[in-house]
Amino acid sequence: MRVEPQQLKAFLLDANLLKEGQFNEAEKVARETNQRIGDVLISQGLITQEELAKLEAYILGIPFVNLEKEKIDPEALKIIPEPIARTHNIVSFRRRGNNLEVAMLDPEDLGTIDFIKKKANLKILPRLTTVQGIKNVLRQYHQSLEAEFGEIISRQARTLDKDALVEKETAAIKSAREEELPLEDAELEKVAQDLPIIKIVDTLLRHAILQRASDIHIEPFEKDILVRYRIDGILREAMILPKRVLAGIVARIKVLANLKLDEHRLPQDGRFKAETEDYKYSIRVSVLPVFDGEKVVMRLLAESTTALTLEELGISGEALEKIQTNLRKPVGMILITGPTGSGKTTTLYAMMEILNTPEINISTVEDPVEYRMPRTNQTQVNPKIGLTFASGLRSLVRQDPDVIMVGEIRDNETASLAINASLTGHLVLSTIHTNSAAGSIPRLIDMKVEPFLISSTLNVILAQRLVRRLTDDKAAYKFKPSELKNIAKYCNLEKILTVLKEEKIVKPQDAWEDINFYRPKSSKECPEGYRGRVGIYEVLAVSSAIKELIVKEATADQIQAQAQKEGMMTMTEDGFIKAAQGLTSVEEILRVIIE
């Protein structure tokens, strides 16, 4: 079931949609770029997506359906799970008895059709549609889920209004706050196992995962509960719930995370797994008492996520070479620095993926173990029983490791042990909280690590931030003088322009006013014009000159100046390169670098 180029050519010429020379030229481009001839014709503006889809449908004898403005019945829509629909560009849009009509872009995807047929136990009637038609239907998965969530909330609210047990529970919480009396475990357990409460929590998790959220914030206030998701590093309001469901939601999450149900005055931390046919997540839970109840934050970690490569993270050029060179060294220390949520752990795992070969023994001590990695011995910190970073690291050294990964250097003891491990024949990878690569060195000295030990062991420091990635549909523009004047308050524009020219991002004769940058463009799928994130980096290799500065206890500014003199590209410069390439916006760069 494939439309051959010659078939397409014959029909296009017969319909007078284009001339033979135009088709032959497009066919040549398709061969050179390894694209479908139809995609080339569309990109050249010779035909529209709808014209191509209708023509292919006619040639193949498959009905064409236009779904660009269609509202799909949620019952028909959810027959095909959203991950399958998104991955294979196939959606179910109508069910009649035992017949299921599905719209798709690729009529050759017989494997997916067969899978849906077996899963749904229905006769599948394939239809061809356009990319825009598929996008319109995919958007309705979220709308359907939000409607389902609203229905569950409404039903739960009605249930709670009639439920004397929950009224008693609410009164008990108020009493406990005012008189500090413990609540009964049995009552909380019963509320947590209430079916509507279970559905609310399950649906909340599912909704957040489909929205690509990394965190869920459940925040109680005087009269209601605010639910917010962190998506691409930015908190967004998701929904407002009635205050009366708070006790049940918190109790349910505590049950899942194996926390104390009757403890409302102290913070608690735990974790649990959420697993369905479509996804598998490890969820970290933090419960904190606040004035109006207990606030819950859940961090969502996809267990199925494979480690990204350094290139996929956005590291390239000389910075990539420096990291790869130092990863090949058998001893020493590599540090990654940045604020919370800047992607340090992801970068660590990308490095470990490079090192993870059969002849290398990798041992880690982490808090928490965020991702599982094959052939790696991962230890979870548990301070309650005395297993800290320091005690775990002390034991790891006796496990004959080649590579040691320490989740974070937080104190003097951990810093000293990590330095000593790198002195005794190990490659140590770790993270530290500072604002720049150069700032990591004074931070280690503040932790009472001897400067000569730092200079002897530290190989390279990578500092990073995450910026939101622009969608493909973005708006190009050039800077106005007033905009450049404002940006100059935060950046060295002359140095950045030099870097852009050296990296051949712009032409040698270009001035700032000649360079195209990009702004987000709102769409139905991505209202803010961003989707996903990319890193901006600076990589400080510890040279002989920098070793001398470390021993002299030089300031971060002095070390930074020497590193830049030796050719280090700063995060700001790397950010402007990515902005000029259209990966992100200048506004995003300024958002993360202005301190």
Automatic annotation (TrEMBL):
PANTHER family: PROTEIN TRANSPORT PROTEIN HOFB HOMOLOG, TYPE II SECRETION SYSTEM PROTEIN GSPE-RELATED. Belongs to the GSP E family. Transmembrane segments: none annotated. Residues 397-411 form the Bacterial type II secretion system protein E domain. Keywords: ATP-binding, Nucleotide-binding. GO terms for molecular function: ATP binding; ATP hydrolysis activity. It comes from the Bacteria. Pfam families: MshEN (PF05157), T2SSE (PF00437). The keyword tRNA processing does not apply. CDD domains: PulE-GspE-like. InterPro entries: AAA+_ATPase (IPR003593), P-loop_NTPase (IPR027417), T2SS/T4SS_dom (IPR001482), T2SS_E_N_sf (IPR037257), T2SS_GspE_N (IPR007831). It comes from Candidatus Wildermuthbacteria bacterium GWA2_46_15. One of its GO terms (cellular component) is plasma membrane. This is Bacterial type II secretion system protein E domain-containing protein. The keyword Nucleotide-binding applies.
